[in-house]
Queue: 3 jobs
Job 1
Amino acid sequence: MAYVIIDPETFRLNDRYETFETVGGAKRSLTAKIKKAQKQFDVYVDRFGKDSDWFNGTDKDLERIKRSVVMSYEEFDKKEPMVIRKNLMSGKTFVEKLNTPSHCSPASETYWSM
């Protein structure tokens, strides 16, 4: 069974191509990502101060990673929301999964330029 790390608020994969063989491995990776994001945020605050209105995205990265959860890939695949997009060439609308890579989606220029 494979496991992934997702943001439950947006249902986006934390790292699109990374799957884990065990729950423990996924949780260890999530813990490491949280520590890394916290360290980057702390470095930015030390360098530019806490009064800054703009934290160079480090505050949002930290928030997103802290609310992430580990889920089995099968459960994620069943629950992943579908989105309506427009075909770039024909202009017709179609439905696809939220985390479809751009190079696999007819809604992107990359798909048509390959």
Job 2
Amino acid sequence: MLTEKLRPQTLDDIVGQGHITKLLKPMVDIIRAGNGEEIPHLGFFGKQGTGKTATAIAFLKDAFGEEWDRNFIELNASDERSIGVIREKVKGFAKKGVLGSFEVDGVQLPIPFNVIFLDECDNLTQEAQSALRRIMEKYKNTRFILSGNYPHRIISPVLDRCAFSNTRFRPINDEDMTTYLDSLGFNIGYKALLMISEASSGSMRKALNILWTLTRIPTEVKEEDVEEYISTLNPIQAKYMLGKIIQCHKHKDKVHQLSMELDRSIDDLAGRGMSGGEILHSIYNLTTDEDDPMPRALKEDILKSLGEGLYYASVSQDDILAVKCWWRKVMIE
């Protein structure tokens, strides 16, 4: 897989998280100076695909070199979320002795601690989190790296023991992501790469998977290839649909005609595989774009009722019909 082949090997390879890597690098220096006992537990939180696991592994590789995984275990709390797993697997690893050494400038130093990387730790039950807190307190020769999407689900006694618990991995911005994708040397134009970045919503993993799939064709990947592959509402289509609402507000006698034209646009998007929720999410992105010249009153009308539209699209038997009904409401109000 391209995502594994291109997994960052050092903190310098991490894209878009400079506010975190600049603080981790001094920690690497502390470990390599023989003062690893000073390093706290770490908490990496943010959206999926932003590099939390990659950063954890790059940090360990920078610190311990080839011996980075000698005293390392990775667990996924979404699969193993019970108190039994914490008491058996996690506690069993945490209380074992630290083995081996790592080299710094030709000198062997003892590895200072075990490392338990607990991915998706926000899925742990409350009982499991309480047990985890006690393990973190008791076993001083083990460091936890906790990773998750929703830190508010984790109890404060656990979060408070972790550095970076109040810092977030940010969605990778389009410019940084496009620059990185362009550096990989695939046969694809810059504008097409920008479209991939925009469709990936800050997730490098998603962007790399889209890039690999599209570049399997033998010719240069064009913008139209990306548009055909990605089931998203592009800005031109979104503005066309919003334009129908503006026309409707100006020409009340044409509501029926404009509504039918809008229905055909929605049906076309549904035929490309988009769900009602995805259509409304795309409308939200355009409505909240500060650079878009949409009338302020229209933006307010859309945003006031968009939550209702998303709700009915999520619970309705026919989410596309729910979107059409929501559009009608916006058009006639």
Job 3
Amino acid sequence: MWEVRWIHITEEHLEMAGYYFEVFETVEEPEAIYEGKMGECIAVREIDKGKYIVVVYRGLSKEDGFVITTFLTRRRRQLERRRKIWQKRR
């Protein structure tokens, strides 16, 4: 099922095509997680200076969930307007 979802995501966000493994890394080891408007989680990780990968997902349990969408952004401040539910320790 993930392969079908990945094809759909990369059709909408062509820039994500080369970031398959980074999506998983962002969910597993994010720098921060923000709360979405409908209960989803928004994981963020810097991949280049000032460039972030954002993964919107819903966790069904600690071991199971699904990715809704993913994209690249330089607008971290817009994400920071949301409620932060987790922050990586430095």
